Amino acid sequence: xxxxxxxxxxxxxxxxxxxxxxxxxxxxxxxxxxxxxxxxxxxxxxxxxxxxxxxxxxxxxxxxxxxxxxxxxxxxxxxxxxxxxxxxxxxxxxxxxxxxxxxxxxxxxxxxxxxxxxxxxxxxxxxx
Length: 128
Prior knowledge:
CATH topology: Globin-like
Number of domains: 1
């Protein structure tokens, strides 16, 4: 029986499974391979990010967009990221927080792609 996302243990479950899929994916795996040399700190950062985003737990520090801006990513990469993310959530959880995490992932992907498109159209190379 599936439960809802209730805390850090559940976050670790979906983050670990999701990034395991990412590393094996033919489209986005190579992008991550170029950007992430050590997965342990990346996963720790993702636990903190989602714990802050979903449960307002302090501890996350960083600028996620700034990390993604220099990457050669397009809409198809975000689309695949969302497919894998939603699949991971749906395979493991059910409930209000599971729906909320998927909504937040959708919003984040749309925001990142919008900002990247703007930067590229206006030939902006740095992020303040």
